[in-house]
């Protein structure tokens, strides 16, 4: 079975855009190459590391294994859709305040996963945070700072 080229309207970060690509093209490639959204990173390409995480309909999803065809009629949020330098999202600000980055490659996945968790459970326990982030890989060893950042963001949530 071969994939077909499709033209679809995607809702990304509150804006609708039309793209044409093969139906099985990973959403990550569309976001980075077609829409120039560089928050989601290409890590493993297998959905294992979390660097490519976006939020789709409120759920953290691995965009490297999410096909374009599956993104139709869904709300997609990337890191760029959360905040910016002048007005960062509270989760982004908590990561800054806790200095929860070293190389920064995992940050997109950590922040997006944390955002989806806090939307679902505004005041999670440390165990819930650890469980949620356990599938996001960080090789620099900033796990303690990342945990503190998510706890800080949860404390700032009304």
Automatic annotation (TrEMBL):
Q: Which domain of life is it from?
A: Bacteria
| UniProt entry keywords in alphabetical sequence | 2Fe-2S, Iron, Iron-sulfur, Metal-binding, Oxidoreductase
Q: Which Pfam families match?
A: Fer2, Fer2_2
> Where is the 2Fe-2S ferredoxin-type domain positioned along the sequence?
6-82
* MF terms (GO), sorted A to Z: 2 iron, 2 sulfur cluster binding; metal ion binding; oxidoreductase activity
Q: Does the keyword Iron-sulfur apply?
A: yes
Give a yes or no for keyword Cytoplasm in this entry.
no
Q: Please state what the protein is called.
A: (2Fe-2S)-binding protein
